[in-house]
Design goal:
single chain, alpha+beta, Gyrase A, domain 2, Elongation Factor Tu (Ef-tu), domain 3, 2 domains, six-stranded mixed sheet, six-stranded antiparallel sheet, 32% strand
């Protein structure tokens, strides 16, 4: 972890290179109808400049991927994890039959740069960047689009920048006072802010309710793939396990998959963790059996506490 960029994310502002994130454009007259029926969010409610956080589910209600979906004037922009870009593209393409929808993967053509920290908005105003303040909203600036989403959970914005203008954008951000933060450092701050990540804390074995990210699921939007399972779980009102932000009284972060115990029994596993210099302990996420919260939790002899609230995207 880089101390300078860690301090910048907490006290000033830093930029993070997230260029590997998948970027897909859905174009055509039927793009809204298709996306609305394929994900958990209410795409039909989006007006140009608005966006949302959503899950793509299997018919069994398992999470294939998460994404930000932004409504532009003549297309929908889908922003997803590097590892799920191809999966989302193929999942959508499979259901295009007689629809007027064209998908284009432009991940290699555009970079993703996040500007995050308590002074992020102040810095972007210095550069005359038009800021969209609603969560997941998006605005055009110069050659780029700027969306109000954050990787770490700090105040922040994502820039979708044509690759040929990436160096120019970085130079402007650096001249304005932003320092580069590496991904490992950004992940420490993400965990401090209890912000889960798909592919790490949320996986294809998860169902939406287990993630505590139910703002991704519109309660009354109508049919979509996996809805029957989501509604069945909602009606049942009980989950055997859930994702929880945790803290461990230790200086050494355990590996993913490390086992948490209660009264000698295995009750959960670590999904990700890191030592937090700010808090002086390990922070992270774990999948825990819900009944285990009533007792004391330990990992390798160290006390494990459950923190309040999972941070919502963006």
């Amino acid at each position: 972890m880089d101390r300078n960029s860690y301090e910048a994310l907490h006290e000033r502002v830093a930029w993070i290179d997230l260029s590997g994130r998948g970027k897909i454009r859905a174009m055509g007259e039927d793009r809204v109808r298709l996306l609305h029926s394929m994900c958990t969010a209410h795409i039909e409610e989006l007006v140009p400049g608005a966006g949302c956080y959503a899950f793509f589910l299997t018919a069994q209600g398992r999470i294939l991927a998460d994404a930000h979906v932004f409504a532009m004037t003549d297309y929908l922009l889908i922003d997803t994890e590097p590892e799920t870009k191809q999966r989302v593209f193929e999942h959508l393409d499979k259901f295009i039959i007689a629809d007027d929808v064209i998908l284009r993967d432009f991940t290699k053509d555009y970079s993703t740069l996040n500007v995050e920290g308590p002074h992020a908005e102040q810095l972007l105003r210095k550069l005359d960047v038009p800021l969209a303040h609603a969560p997941c909203s998006i605005a055009e600036w110069s050659h780029s689009e700027v969306a109000h989403v954050s990787y770490t959970g700090q105040p922040g914005y994502s820039f979708f920048v044509p690759c040929e203008h990436m160096d120019e954008c970085i130079a402007e951000l650096t001249a304005a006072g932003a320092v580069q933060a590496d991904l490992a450092t950004a992940d420490v701050v993400r965990l401090e802010n209890a912000k889960p990540r798909y592919g790490v804390d949320i996986t294809e074995t998860s169902i939406p309710q287990e993630t505590q990210q139910m703002h991704a699921v519109h309660a009354s939007k109508g049919c979509y793939i996996g809805q029957e399972i989501v509604e069945r779980v909602r009606a049942r009102g009980h989950l055997n396990k859930m994702l929880y932000p945790i803290e461990i009284e230790s200086f050494e972060a355990p590996q993913a998959g490390a086992t948490i115990h209660s009264d000698g029994k295995e009750v959960g596993t670590i999904t990700s963790s890191a030592f937090s210099p700010l808090q002086g302990k390990v922070v992270g996420f774990a999948i825990l059996r819900t009944e285990a919260l009533k007792g004391g939790l330990t990992l390798n002899g160290a006390n494990v506490g459950v923190r309040r609230g999972v941070r919502q995207a963006p």
